[in-house]
Amino acid sequence: LSDKLDKALHVLKGHGSITEVNVAETLKEVRRALLDADVNFKIAKEFTVRVKEKALGQDVLTTLQPGQLMVKLVKDELTELMGGDAEGINLSGNPSVILMSGLQGSGKTTFSGKLANYLKNKKTKKPLLVACDVYRPAAIDQLHVVGDQIGVEVFSDKGNNDPVAISKAGIAHAKANGHNVVIIDTAGRLAVDEAMMTEISNIHKAIEPQETLFVVDSMTGQDAVNTAKAFNDILNFDGVILTKLDGDTRGGAAISIKSVVNKPIKFIGTGEKMEAIDVFYPSRMADRILGMGDVVSLVERAQEQFDEVEARKLQKKIAKNQFGFDDFLKQIQQIKKMGNMKDLVGMIPGAGKMMKDIDIDDDAFKGIEAIIHSMTPEERANPAVINSSRKKRIGKGSGTSVQEVNQLLKQFTQMSKMMKMMQGGGGKRMMQMMQN
Ligand code: GDP
Ligand code: MG
């Protein structure tokens, strides 16, 4: 989608004014791009008509460049279509009950975990996860694995195959144990059918949740809209969760779903990891669709993951020349926690295209981690003691070559030097550069 819009908007660049002809030409491209992204035909058409009216009504010569104006018009309109300001979730109940709905494989269980983790990190919330997918024993296990990973309690009842009873028991358990948020993970089927709809509707009626969320895989395109409509007809849900927005952005689902069911998109899922969750901001999504990157999200995510206390400790160590491989390892873990590297890089304006052919993932760190793990505590704290016989031993232990060990040592030395330099004011400059 971004590529096509880039091209469409490019048509206008270099023109002195917006004439009816080049507006029409551009909007034809914009419409095609929207259709390609599975935006409903009618919605795409209405969209371009509105932008056209606005474009022709502007006195472009006195304000911005026509190309920029067009970008702004398309962006504002996209933002509007996806729904104004970001909306939070209702956590006013005690406990607040959040019900997940959606097809099998849409990402309900994963998102339940992400949301629990997100709320838990807010400190005032103590969530409980409730396993109501009773059809596959593996589904209950999956939620337990997620719960263990994020340190959130999971309520389940393996012998019981009545999801209404389990959800009620889960809420009672939450009340008795001081949980103020209950997240109910439910079963979905591969397609909308009566059995699934009856079941989710029964749970919904029985527990009267504060929030009913509809989880949808953004890669399912036009189908996502039909599914959303079917669930909304039964549940009148409060919000949409758009999952699997990592990699190639499919903004189309966001636009179409919002237009058809008129419910806010509240969160997006951008990866399989528990940290890959973002609040949905229509204007950022519009930026992303327009290929401008999502810098604000990127910066926020990085800040959230980076522990300030650790950062200060690290600064002291660098200043005293005590930065060692254990610290280096911690840094790698911080980076990995931020989610898939490619997602992050993809949010940088202009970098999205560049990254298409390059595959950076967590595996990139495997060799480095193996080498560091093969070092003794003394070697990690004071890399200077690593002589050639130690290098041989480390190489053998980590399944790498002496060259690779050498390379890491060299990189490490360079990095230590650079960090020391950044302490003296350079760091601030670098931050400024990143923010521009
Ligand atoms: P459920 O059947 O609705 O509970 O779906 P799951 O939570 O089990 O997710 C189905 C698959 O999608 C799993 O392999 C998840 O790891 C994966 N998944 C869920 N959310 C995301 C996401 O935001 N991005 C990516 N890439 N994968 C996801
Ligand atoms: Mg599930």
UniProtKB/TrEMBL annotation:
- Which InterPro entries does the entry link to? AAA+_ATPase, P-loop_NTPase, Signal_recog_part_SRP54_M_sf, Signal_recog_particl_SRP54_hlx, Signal_recog_particle_SRP54_M, SRP, SRP54, SRP54_GTPase_dom
Q: What class of enzyme is it?
A: hydrolase
Q: What is its EC number?
A: 3.6.5.4
Primary location group: cytoplasm
| Keywords, sorted A to Z | Cytoplasm, GTP-binding, Hydrolase, Nucleotide-binding, Ribonucleoprotein, RNA-binding, Signal recognition particle
Which amino acid positions bind GTP, per UniProt? 102-109, 185-189, 243-246
Source taxon at top rank:
Bacteria
This protein's record includes keyword RNA-binding = yes
Catalytic activity annotation = GTP + H2O = GDP + phosphate + H(+)
Domain (SRP54-type proteins GTP-binding) ranges: 264-277
Domain comment from the record reads as follows:
Composed of three domains: the N-terminal N domain, which is responsible for interactions with the ribosome, the central G domain, which binds GTP, and the C-terminal M domain, which binds the RNA and the signal sequence of the RNC.
Q: Which HAMAP family match?
A: SRP54
Described by its record, this protein's role is as follows:
Involved in targeting and insertion of nascent membrane proteins into the cytoplasmic membrane. Binds to the hydrophobic signal sequence of the ribosome-nascent chain (RNC) as it emerges from the ribosomes. The SRP-RNC complex is then targeted to the cytoplasmic membrane where it interacts with the SRP receptor FtsY.
The UniProt family comment states: Belongs to the GTP-binding SRP family. SRP54 subfamily.
Q: What is this protein called?
A: Signal recognition particle protein
List the gene name. Answer: ffh
